[in-house]
User: Fold these one by one.
Assistant:
Number 1:
Amino acid sequence: MLSPDLIDSLFPADLPGPEHWEKRYPPRDLPPGAQVTRFGPSPTGYLHIGGVYVAMVDADLALHSGGAYLLRIEDTDQARLTEGATEQFADGLTYFTISPTEDDLSGHYGPYVQSSRAEIYLSYVRELLRRDRAYLDFATKADLQDITAKQRAAGALPGYYGKWAIWRDASEDQVREKLLAGEPYVVRFRSPGLSGGRVSYTDAIRGELSADDNRNDAVILKSSDQPLRLPTYHFAHAVDDHLMRISLVVRSDEWLSSVPLHLQLFDALGFDRVQYAHVAPLMKQDGSSRRKLSKRKDPEASVGFFIEQGYPAEAVQYYLRGLANGRLAELPLPEALATPIELSGFNAAGPLVDLVKLDDISADYVATLPADAIMGQVATWAEAYDPALAEVLAAEPDLARRVLDIERVDVPNPRKDLRRWADFRPVYGYFFPQIFVPVTDPADDRFGGLAPDLVRQVASAFADQYQAPGPDVEWFNQIRELATQLGFAPNAKTYKKDPEAYPGSIREASQVIRVLLTGSGRSPDLAQVAGALGVDEVLRRIRAVV
RNA sequence: GGUCCCGUCGUCUAGUGGCCCAGGACGCCGCCCUCUCAAGGCGGUAACGCCGGUUCGACUCCGGUCGGGACUACCA
């Protein structure tokens, strides 16, 4: 055990003791059952959709229990900090309307950035040192590698524990000598774990869990050669979650195996243990197996993907909530968003994220929106991600409105052709001559393999006798007539009966017109499209291929 | 290697011993509607990983096994 003098000489003379922090951050005065939660992203990269998932759960639990939810930036790894990450977190969480109930401006439990809490951690490290629950470790990287190698050779478990913990029982003289020589050190927790010991605890999602007790003397304070002395995740977790008076820690299940250590830390520090809820991470199918959604490999792992594609926040939230609690997926969207997420409703296994399902949800959601709302959202999105489209929209707001109204207003089944705002250009862009690219190649794939000659014939026959839609015009008759003349079957059924007798049915013929007019195989009612375009533009597009 | 977690249709899941030769949703396929694409309506497809045990009875309980995943850092 180190002498008090030596220990104190390691810290600022005016460093307050734990009682100071205890007083400064008193227990919260909250109604019974209120949950205090936190989301603690590490600004070492961009926000992961799994982060949004967990943050959403945190915020929802706090909201519905009358508690508090806070965002804590966990930047103890100063070496891996990424420029702009904190701002990106804020943007991403804002997009999904997940906002903390307290922050540096309004909260009493800050600062909410770990690098600003260095002094607090130091107080508790010193306390542990004074009580001999921690010790100084001067092992170098080479020492550590050496230990690992020997353990491997001996078939022992890896780690810094027992007889392998070379500084665990070092004498004060040894420590003084190293200190004098200016050698850097870390502070390690003196684990009370015994060989063969077991721990058990209750996880709010998984129930009773047990594991081998922790025996590893984990590092709690990083190297003394760093300008800012910060703790490791484990120690910061214990100190912060206690002092911020967090009642429930919701985190990804990769932390499950660290729980024994965390429990020891809470106990050694004299803190009440927190309740844990370990959620399974979002997964991705990879060949025949599945793995955690990876930021490196999967574009949809990044929150940016959803924002850039312009997925409506409500649709993504609805999808994520359904993943969290299956029964929410059975509810209509408004109810699902309003119904509290329950810890007991989680599945212990990690779900695969299914973009096809999200698309379906999103299309359904957009179909419920009035044209005005869609216009506003598309315009906002386009300003950031498709400036040319934004310009066109701003120049022709009336056209844009009319376009969005087609088959959306006063119809029993509104079109479901918009899943994300990025769909606007491929789905409706052709209405705007400024951004429309005419189809000029009769062999274009979009014609579905119809003979190029026939494509040309359809186009020129159509153009030659074209009549704009009007009160006295049966617009589609034009197509029907030319289709008959060119030998197309009058309907799909007739064609199906004898496919050899026709080049195709009226369906194929009208698809030629559709593709020429819109550049797409999918569009609203052709007569309405033609009407919106005007005679000149219709003819220009049809003749582009002749 | 060790420890821990997980395992129902392709996917998300319902199911807490008989209501299940397993229900819903998405997907896919087909049919219908329709002058054309969608949308919509109707129908179909498809699963309890495997082996034992407990029980009158097991998707549900127990054991094993296989498979998948996480952790095993001065990363979080």
Number 2:
Amino acid sequence: MQTDFYEQLTDSQRQAVFHTEGPLLVLAGPGSGKTRVITYRVAALIDSGVQAYNICAVTFTNKAAEQMRKRCAELLGFLNKAHISTFHSLCVRILRQYSSQANINRNFSIYDATEQAKCMRQAVKECNLNTADFSPARMLDAVSALKNRLVDVDTLKSEANDFFSATLAKIYTRYQKMLSEANALDFDDLLLKTAYLLKDCADVREELSNRFRFVLIDEYQDTNHAQYRIAKLLVSQHNNICATGDPDQSIYRWRGADIRNILAFEKDWPQATVVKLEENFRSTPNILKAADSLISFNQSRKEKVLIPTRPEGGDIVINCCEDQTNEAQTVASLISELADEGVSLRDIAVFYRINAMSRALEEALIKNKIPYQIVRGIEFYNRKEIRDLLAFLKVLINPEDEIALLRIINTPARGIGKTTIDRIKAYAAAGRLSFYEALKQADKISSLSAGSKAKVAVFINTMEELKKQLDKPVASIALSVFEKTGLSASLKDSSDTDAIDNINELISAAASYDEQSDEPSLLDYLQQISLFSDVDTYDIGRPSVALMTLHSAKGLEFDNVFIVGLEEGLLPHERSSEDDEDIEEERRLFFVGITRAKLRLFMSYCQYRTIRGQLSRSIPSSFLYELGTCRNNGSHNDVGGIYYDDEYQRSRTFSPVFTPGQLVRHVSFGLGRVKDFVDMGENSIVVVSFNSGQTKSLKVRFANLLTFEGDFS
DNA sequence: CATAGCCGCCTTTTT
DNA sequence: GGCGGCTATG
């Protein structure tokens, strides 16, 4: 063991790393070395004689897991077999191993968002409901929320006592039936089925909780109820749970993350040791000061200090731009300046709230010849040719997978059209066969023409032939499929070289999977890549600027950070301004973004922005004001550390200024008291708590608030 | 049965 | 400003 690594740890870090038995909670602010601590802890456990096989570490992304494995191997000087993965990968492993107890076929497909949407659309239709009134996306959200709370179909049915939940129960039932007929699980099912398996099967629970003497969970603030239950059941034998996280960085409430999991940790495990890591080794003091000032505006939080350890750095810069083209150009110019100073492009990142905002940035970076990489690797797996090839592979493993089968039955075109498909479907339904089984029996289907029968037979023969190769390496199966199914020929005919390149890339990726995996198999490969996420393809070593959403930025750090689009409606996003908790989550998201920066932080907003083709006026985000300057009397110079550009300074000299506590009257809302004032010059916002009980955010320019001389209180 | 073109919904964030 | 699904046409 390389002991010199340990000497670099602080006392509290060491306390967490060398904690022996019993539950442990590591409450850690940003940049406190949290990931490092959890990695060292795994290494230290193995070093002290714990079998790697008995350790389970859960991270938030596959990328994080990969890095942890690598770092662990460096520390120990050898590769180890600790189970380090995401919650979802862990569940796939468990469900495959105990498939009979879980009552599922181990060759299950994992349905991604696109496939889920297709199923849901059909489910809604089969319930004789209008997809306009019951939009598949919203229904999926609703079903997902239920699954994350471990509400299964039966429970919902028994509880459904109003029209909406009764309808939802019908749709949920239908959707679930389709998945099970396709022998498919969606992302949420992976968690739900595992949680139920561990709850209902005592022998599985005992076996696993016995095996995992130590369970470590990173980013615990973003676990949902299902994950929480799984964690509890997994540690039921040894109670050696170690959770790390930071409530201020909880940004996944919308997908079911329950911040109460981390807040109630000490109640769940009363003997828990709590270690706080409050020192920040990442960011300069002024960046931390801004982050701290921002997050202190959140009402529902535990106070926490961020202790800087770095020397003072340069100003935070806030730029006002005309529109997003201009903003992107400003970012590109600043990046060029940094590069001229000798900064490596790999130390620069640009964050934005929504994926659609990457376009303008990409264009500007291309124009300025600045290499970049977009952290959205999932796009690769969304390409038509890739999805086609993968669909063939999925059908080979799981012939029940109807979505995949319907995708490829006539791709490339082989003369099997809608009429033929409908007739086969009817035959399948009548005989209670799977669609694939019905295809096999095509010659018995009287409604089919001889020509159709022959075409189906060719297809089925090809598939059955390919099945004989399933024990070969994944790369060679993929290559066979590409050649034998006519995909290759059709791409060559259309001379789509991009598509062919992509296929080649997929085959190389499969080859490296074959090399790296302990027990490579097509099944494992398909299930793994279904769980790939955006950050997983981010190549940290490449000398290029990283572009990503604020969500993807979690867990990463960069010397130089740009955050663009600091505008009302964008950050905080308009769709999240329904209640205070949503706004607080947006604030945490911004907090995460700011605290990724080590040395320099650049932020910008636009005066105009084109959204969905429509040019509209933007106003600066109220969050900007919360960074710690410009409170009331405009004496922001004394706060120091934040530089606003001229436009910002100019605009703020015009308009009236309000002070919290001040009494005002609005023409329709009546009397109220100022709760907050966001000084943005002519774009200023005033938050008023009216006597009617409602609180409103108003643009000063339009609100026409009457003020009173003096104060009546 | 294949293709082209139109319509509508979409976009907040993701394992 | 894009994608997927549906329809009309050859």
Number 3:
Amino acid sequence: MPELPEVETIARNLRPALVGKAILEADLCWKRTLAKPSAAKFKRDIRGQEIREISRRAKFLVIQLSTDFLIIHLRMSGDLLAIIGGYAPAKHDRFILKLSEDTTLVFHDPRKFGRVWLVKNPDEVLGNLGPEPLGSDFSAGWLYENLQRRKRQLKPLLLDQAFIAGIGNIYVDESLHMAKLHPLMRSNRVSEAQAEDLWRAVQAVLEEGIRRNGASIDWVYRGGDFQNHFRVYGRGGKTCPVCGTIIDRITVGQRGTHFCPACQVLER
DNA sequence: CACGAGACCTGTTCGC
DNA sequence: TGCGAACAGGTCTCGT
């Protein structure tokens, strides 16, 4: 579920409930959820540290502790909950931190794709990420230049976290639609004006997602409502809100891809 | 370098 | 109603 706006929403919600609390004990329910280090070292090292700050980098949650960084990626179905008061174990809980003041941080993840790291240096995990799309290094000029240097299809390139970090399947489809660019267009054929449109669209769509507290779909509900404002994502067979044409659904890089065949024309 | 397929997982929804 | 197939917010690895 979580792309940049959803992870940002989670970080904002967790911050007031967790910052300042101490970690009493870690409990790992599904072994593979822990990416680094070993379970024994993890449990030993994390105990007694205090939660200093919670932030986001791309789709990662970064929890700064007294001496280490706890980094979490929710992948497809992960969710993080701060439970104040009695904690009752639930079916898909994979990892639990018992905190001071009767608080529990629960990592709930039905599909078990999510991962957790405990590291001294966050770059060990975050070092290969591209620029933050809502950050100052992401400019129209940077985007144009870097699109020229590749010859990839736009959609898979924008999903490549080493190229730009934080965009996922929903927001890429929405961004390309807003910029009126076809998902299969070659990146090196994007004009300077089109790159500027794409730059603007990516930021607008992500900002709207954050403003609406992210998108909540299916059984993973977190209170966001961006799902009620999708223009193309998940709307194959329905009409384009801009021109009324029927939205098409294709597969690109094994991902469902939604676009308007009239607004987003593939020139060749 | 670019791309497709397969893995990793469980749950829901759809078609017959 | 039952049952298999398709599909789901992500990313990694391997072969071509």
Number 4:
Amino acid sequence: MWIVEKILSNKIMNNNIFLKHLSSPSIFKDKKVLSSSFVPDQILHREQEIESLSKILAPALKGYQPNNIFVYGTVGTGKTITIKFILNQLKEIEKTKIKTIYINCKMKKVADTEYRLFAQLLKEHGVIVPDTGLPTDVLYRKFFDIVEKEEKIVIIVLDEIDALVNKVGDEFLYNLTRMNSELKRSQITIIGITNNLSFRDNLDLRVKSSLGEEEVLFKPYNALQLKDILKKRIEEGFNPGVVDEAVLNKCAAIAAQEHGDARRALDLIRVAAEIAERNGDIRVREEHVDIAEQKLDMDRVIETIKSQPKQSQAVLLAIVNSVCNGVCNNTKTVLTGDVFEAYQKICAKNNINVLTQRRISDLISELDMLGIITSKIISKGRYGRTREITLALSNEVLNKVRLVLQERFES
DNA sequence: AGGTATTCACATGAAACTATTCTCTGAGTTAGG
DNA sequence: TAACTCAGAGAATAGTTTCATGTGAATACCTGT
């Protein structure tokens, strides 16, 4: 503890403003354990899934190509973590003949297009290709050559594969699976992870048959299982006695309600603890969890809004303005047409070029997907068919959103 | 009254376009031998 | 003659526009009673 030494040796003034933060005992023992991306050395309540996955992948150890796998399960059911865990175990036994690659297809600017996916795959093999300029099939060739040269069994994990397929189609999956028949000395196995249970149904038949050779379903955790998982993480992540049973129960219960999302439970407890620590409390209490729940919600919304492009923000402001001004007399809903009008006004005031209504329509449905607004299509008979838009935000969040938006626009 | 046709106000889809960033290639230019 | 420069052709990508087509049900319009 070099800081303590420094303090003792009086190298730091004893009125330094940071001193009081140092002296308060830390709640955390090892904070990274509480992050949802942490892979623990033991995964609870996934014994069955681990068993079947390892059975499928075991042939790799004997030099055969394992079947391709589809992994399903809603958010926070431990899909990613389990796969990572299994890959780690696999590598522990056999490093020379097996190569594992994990790629998250949703990562912006990393693997969200076919080109970038292959660029990423190449990068994993130590080949850097330019971001643009090359035809995609060149990357495809390069990847093929490298894999062939390596003489390994390559296990490629494509997390959130549905996002990529929705964006660019399933052609690349077909190409990847087809590679195997052309590869002589190496083989590729694909593990596709998705939280969209019906994803497989709208795949090309060829892809469906070759990729869906094996399927593993991850069921949501129930409250008891969540509690176990949390408990273990708490033991590792916090100093003893910091979190009591009631808090644990509460987090598990909230997460269980949200379709057994373990990530949610972890976020809750971590943020609750951060809040407690900042307040100078040495224990995490239930009210901290309440605040954490709100804060998580708020942060999520604000973050997504801030990261939206300007036009999208303008559209959101148009929605917020129209809803708050009660365009549709005192109801809290607005229609696409109202939004477009309000949007045009905002553009005029801010000197932004006005996009077509067609585009605005898309931007509105994007905001819907992000969960910032709720919209449903209604038919008003003779008076047309349109979207009925409602803000999906609590008043508190809404006010914050307004502040953020008004910072960016004159309105 | 009951049935059918219209009509509105957008939704939704597909394709094409724009602008930006970047590679590759080959022609032209330059400097050194 | 090798090395360098530079313009032009192509690609990838994101964000849009243009054009075309779809659509649910309140109303207008008929029809036969």
